[in-house]
Amino acid sequence: MKRILLFPIAAIIAVLAVTGCEKPLPEGLTGEIAFISSMDDDGAFDIYVISLPSKEIRQLTHTEGRGIENVWLDWCLAGPIAFASTRDGNYEIYMINPDGSSEVRLTENDYDDFYPTLRWDGKMVAFSSSGATKNGPPQKDIFIKDIATRKTKRITKTPEDEIALNWSPDGKKIAYAKYVRGQPDIFILDLATRTPTRITYNPGEDLNPVWTSDSKYLVFSSDRTDTVNVAGERLYSIFTVDAEGKTPPEPLIHKEKYTMGSPSISPDNKWIAYQFKRVDWNWMYIGIRSTTNPKESYTLVKNIYFNRNPVWKPTLD
What we know:
0% helix; 317 residues; 5-stranded mixed sheet; mainly beta
């Protein structure tokens, strides 16, 4: 995987341009982005993939039923996409090929499994689960399943919820959000030692950490700069921080009266995909923005539906 340093993006506060779908993409911008949408209008949230630069969209899952969700995508270098789905009554973990073939269910139980993330080779899946608590309210801990053997190991056992997992490209660590006194901060778990390191310290909500391709930096969403509730809604912006937590997080994408989240970094670290909406909208768009030039922003998916959770297809280039 190409080792390109993401920064100096940490010093940039973006001006998010809400552009129409007619705006042409820059020459040379290629790749694929998976995302969640209800655009087929059958009441369910399904998985789609948009190809760049053509903006052609294909549908991977075809789930019917109002309120059914296929959510929390993760796309690994080996090819498969992991996700959670409520199609069978509660959240379970599934995996599917990017052409929509070979869909397989990875967990099957009476409790909820959330936030799957695949190791780069597609042989292991980590996820958050609420099923192992015997006493008191269910707490979400981290588990890892060997996909070939179906054996599952519990990795953490804490009284706080651990959610929004993302496996590092080098396969050595998992970034996640952990609740501390009721608010989530970003942590990193070293899988060799099972030692957690806290990366952010903030009274706001820090969520959805994702790695740059060199495993040196994290990008995440946070409402830490939202000091006023707009229409009763907390507004999220996108920040970046070094993976050792030695320097404070820096704002990356922010715009007043907009909320944005679920960031994903392109394999070459030149683009960031994210979901965004304005406070007076009833829908959500998918956009991308250059990590070095805040004026280079494009809307990829723009319709009257709720589009979210974009994830770039990883490559070796």
